[in-house]
Design goal:
The protein has about 280 residues and is mainly alpha-helical. About 80% of the residues lie in helices and about 0% in strands. Helix 5 packs parallel to helix 7, helix 11 packs antiparallel against helix 12 and helix 12 runs parallel beside helix 14.
């Protein structure tokens, strides 16, 4: 009986050695981007030693590369269960951290960005990999974009913009600004909402913020004459005469004979000559 037990132990050790060799062969194929070849070797490694979570993790990496996310997730979950079932002092923090990171990558590929963030944070607690921190930031950015996109509603944007216009006409620029901000959140591709908020910043003498919004408006609509007008006015207010002149000239290029553009260019010329002239104001 003892000889039989010794034989079984020796057999299991031989299986583990064979499994380790198969894993190394799988790694070589994986590095050569031969995913099918790597999968064959990782399958053999798991068959010879099904209790080693590393082999499952490696196979999961292949599944991920083949966009087989469900299979990858099943392997990683098994690997995590194997590792966490060990006594705490015997658990491999690095291996566990890699498993959590891989689970985060799987969630990210599935579009589950909140899940990805959860698992990337778990990974960092176990073991800090440089790439995991990068992946965490990418998942947080993706989640923010997803939430912003889900918030988009052109109808509600138009409603907020209309309320802002009414407040602006009443001289309530602070509250109008809030409404235009809501309009932008609801429809960030509406150049008029950006230009209207720029008008609020102009009235509130927050010209640098106004310039940023007016620039966004002309980025969205390069032929938006009114936004160029506001941009020219605010650059003039900031005493950046060259940029003010460029904005007014752009107006004139788009609308030859535009009197506001001509007056703006005259103001810039006077400023360059040492004179000064007041800046105009526009209604949204």
């Amino acid at each position: 009986d003892e000889m039989q037990i010794d034989g079984e132990i020796a057999g299991k050790e031989a299986d583990k050695e064979t499994a380790a060799k198969e894993k190394e062969l799988g790694n070589e194929e994986y590095m050569k981007a031969n995913l099918d070849g790597a999968l064959v070797h990782y399958n053999k490694a798991i068959e010879m030693d099904p209790t080693n979570p590393v082999y499952l993790n490696n196979r999961a990496a292949v599944y991920l590369s083949k966009n087989m996310t469900d299979d990858a997730e099943a392997d990683v979950v098994r690997a995590i269960k194997m590792e966490t079932s060990k006594p705490i002092d015997e658990q491999d923090d690095k291996a566990l951290g890699r498993s959590y990171s891989r689970l985060g990558t799987i969630c990210h590929q599935k579009g589950n960005f909140s899940g990805a963030i959860h698992w990337f944070k778990h990974s960092i607690v176990e073991y800090t990999f440089d790439d995991t921190a990068i992946k965490l930031r990418a998942a947080e950015k993706a989640l923010k974009q997803q939430e912003q996109l889900a918030y988009v509603d052109p109808v509600k944007s138009a409603e907020a913009k209309a309320k802002g216009n009414a407040m602006f006409r009443e001289g309530d620029y602070s509250d109008a600004l809030k409404m235009y901000t809501e309009a932008i959140k609801r429809n960030p591709n509406d150049p008029k909402a950006w230009n209207n908020r720029a008008a609020c910043y102009q009235k509130l003498y927050e010209l640098k913020f106004g310039v940023a919004d007016a620039k966004k408006a002309v980025e969205l609509d390069p032929k938006y004459v009114k936004a160029y007008s506001r941009l020219g006015q605010m650059y003039y207010g900031l005493k950046d005469i060259p940029k003010a002149a460029d904005a007014f000239q752009k107006m004139l290029d788009l609308e030859p004979g535009n009197q506001d553009a001509q007056r703006g260019l005259q103001m810039c010329q006077a400023a360059r000559s040492g004179g000064a002239s007041g800046e105009g104001q526009e209604r949204p």
